[in-house]
Amino acid sequence: MFRIGEIQELTIGKKVEFGVYLTEGEDAAEKVLLPSKQVPEGSKVGDKISVFIYRDSKDRLIATTNIPTLTLGKVACCKVKENGKIGAFLDWGLEKDLLLPYREQTAPVKAGDEIPVALYIDKSNRLCATMKLYKYLQGNDTYVKDDQVSGIVYEISDNFGAFVVVDGRYSALIPRKEMTKGIYVGQKVNCRVTAVKSDGKLDLSMREKAYIQMNIDADKLMKKLEAEGGSLDFNDKASPELIRERMDMSKNEFKRAVGNLLKVGRIEITEDGIRIKREKK
């Protein structure tokens, strides 16, 4: 039986005017068409050819020697071409675009977006894409704590954080407290591994270790002060929620940044705020 959505080696069983029919062996009754424009020059009956099996626009099984961006159960990035009535259509390297049903989207997508998806077979035995990648990913056997990794955000949960696919196959999570403001589905991120679970799944942070992040946050605070005319109307006694909203830092990170700048004499704390310390003339 032909394996839809997979690359497989089949045998040329018969040549016709519009292509060749492929089978799984000389005595196999099942056959699938490889159109003429896909047939390698000089091919003859009995030759084996590596092809990908999918369904054409008329829902018929068809073979192609073109290799798509992704195969069954695998994860890869595809570009959104357009939105339709039942979902978005993706460019995956074949003549027929790949359907991403609305129910399989973890966030709205638009033409031009590049998003990570997996390939699956739906209830009608057709190939479709999904952005719900968790079950298609695996634990890693490569990275350890404090390694730097690159990945793509594929889903964001209010309860857990941002789910990330690393290297197109590893399962990872950026917990809410380790996320930066404005993170979105489809975003490419560079993160630090903070933990490797027993199943190989990764916990990530978009922030550096505390002693490194402190200097980054101190620079960020100075830029914010300069942009606000030299002062802010809150200090390190403000609520964690306000600090997160205004500075995209946790309260502890903000306090470390403030302490760093106080130590070198660049700022001063007022009763209800912070201001840049100006040199006296």
Description:
- The chain has 281 residues and is mainly beta.
- The chain folds into four domains: 7-64, OB fold (Dihydrolipoamide Acetyltransferase, E2P); 75-134, Nucleic acid-binding proteins (OB fold (Dihydrolipoamide Acetyltransferase, E2P)), CATH 2.40.50; 137-205, Beta Barrel (OB fold (Dihydrolipoamide Acetyltransferase, E2P)); 210-276, Winged helix-like DNA-binding domain superfamily/Winged helix DNA-binding domain (Arc Repressor Mutant, subunit A), CATH 1.10.10.
- The protein has three helices and 18 strands.
- The strands form four sheets. The protein has a five-stranded antiparallel sheet with strand order 3-2-1-4-5, with no helix packed on it.
- The longest helix is centred in the C-terminal third of the chain and has 18 residues, at 210-227.
- It starts with 6 loop residues before the first strand and ends in a 5-residue tail after the last strand.
Count of structural domains: 4
Q: What's the helix-strand series?
A: EEEEEEEEEEEEEEEHEHHEE
User: Any idea what the shape is?
Assistant: elongated
Total beta-strand segments: 18
CATH-defined topology of the largest domain:
OB fold (Dihydrolipoamide Acetyltransferase, E2P)
Distance between the termini: 87 Å
What is the highest CATH level, the class of the largest domain? Mainly Beta
Structural class: mainly beta
This entry's quaternary arrangement is single chain
Radius of gyration: 27 Å
Number of helices: 3
| Range of strand content | 35-45%
Question: Strand arrangement, largest sheet?
Answer: 3-2-1-4-5
List unreliable stretches of 5+ residues.
Answer: none
